[in-house]
Amino acid sequence: MRYDAILKNLPEDYPQDWAQFAGVDRHVAVTIIDADVSTVSAAADKVLRIDEPEPWILHLEFQASHDSTLSERVLKYNVLLGIRHSLPVRSVVVLLRREADGKGMTGRVVLKLPRDRKYLEFEYDTIRLWDVRPETILDGGVGTLPLLPLTEVAEPELPAMINQMENRFLQEMGQADMDSLWTATFILMGLKYDPEVSSQLLQGVRSMKESVTYQAILKEGWEIGREVGREVGREEGLEAGLERGLRKGRVAGREEEARRILLAQGSKLFGKPSAKIRKAISNIVEPAVLEQLALRLLDAKNWSDLLDTP
Questions:
Q1: pTM value surpassing 0.90
Q2: Which domains does the chain have, with CATH numbers?
Q3: Between residues 40 and 100, which one has the greater pLDDT?
Q4: Which of 6, 45, 136, 209 has the smallest number of CB atoms closer than 10 Å to its CB?
């Protein structure tokens, strides 16, 4: 679910970049539209309107693990989105790691009546990230750069790739946006690499030096988490590391930094908070409460659940 939330947010923040990633010309106007298809209590991952002379919808669906029903689900979203918005829909499935692949991932659905009579054929595009050349991502928009470590890149090449990512971020965005994209990169790297590898790579990122709490999470938090994780499991280890990272930020007089990190990480998990949620978090002045909220991020279902949990 962490990866799912991250990948629903990134196209919303950088729709042009993600449309380009799916093969749309970078000069075409792109806008976010409602992905909800509530008539069947479902929602597609992310939906973009491509405003060419004849507009159409780009439907992005992300998958990190194998799902034998994925093709039928994509068909359902495709049809319902087309009906809802009265536009043609192109569906693109992005497989984030090899474990998500399988013999059913053909990009085609064929439904038949008895006696082998076909009554429906549907096709969708599939992007297998491990087959994507790193240059394809590096030549695209900054909003898709967090995908770079999941492409066809060997582990020894990662430091050079991270450096190229940093150069792009430094040239094209401010510190707040960089923090958000590095957080997304760190979380997505968990799909392919050991947390130790991820933390070691990002410790040396110059553009993250401004964030005391974030650096503490990367450098100290994962070290503690790795030790605790040997005994009680990775999730509890992460919580222990995060707690110490937040404590270091508080000792350094950076409680506000802890609040900002909470909002940034929560936004990637649950989407951008409403004005009401932001106000509720800004009213929290006790550092211990902020720490507990941060530790509950992994267990909460949404912003309301996070704040309502006693």
A1: no
A2: 2-131 (3.40.1350), 134-308 (no CATH)
A3: 100
A4: 209
